[in-house]
Amino acid sequence: MSWADRLAGAITAHSRLVIIAMLVVTLVAGAGAGAIEQSSSLDQFQSDTPEAEALTYIEGHFSTGPDNTTTAQLIVRGDNVLSKESTLDTLRLQQAFRENETINRTLDRNQPSVGVANLVAMTALAGQDQSNSGPTGQPSLSTQIAAVESMNTTEYERTLAAVLNPEGGNGLAFMPTDYEVGSSTANATMVLVTHRLEEGSSGSNEFEEAPDEIVDAQVAMQSIANDGGDGSEVIVFGRGIMSAEESNSMADSLAIVGPLAFLFVIVALIVAYRDLLDILLGLLGIVVVLVWTFGFMGWAGIAFNQIFIAVPVLLIGLSIDYAIHIFMRHREERQNDGSPVGDGVRRSMRVALGGVGIALVWVTATTAIGFLSNLTSSVPPIQDFGVVSAVGIVFALLVFGVLIPALKVELDELLENRGYDRNKRAFGTGSSPVGSLLSTGSKAARRAPFVVIALALLVSAGGAYGATQVDTSFAQEDFLAEDPPEWTKQLPEPFRPHDYTLKENLEFVNEHFVRGGAQAQILVRDNVANPDTLDRLATAERDAAESDAVVTLSSGEANIQSPLRTIQQVARQNASFNATVAAADTDGDGVPDRNIDGVYDHLFAVAPEEAAGVIHRSDSGEYGAVRMVISTSGTVATSHVTAEMRTIAAGIDGDGVQATATGQTILFDIIQGQLMDTVIQSLLITFVVIFAFLMIVYRLTEGSATLGAVTLLPVLLSVSWILGTMYLLGIPFNILTGMITSLTVGLGVAYTLHMSERYNLELQRTGSVWEAMNRTVTGTGGALLGSAATTVGGFGVLVFAILPPLQQFGLITGMTIIYAFLASVLVLPSLLVVWTKYFGPDADFETQSGSSAAPSASDGGRPEDR
Question: What domain range includes position 8?
Answer without folding.
Answer: 1-33+275-426
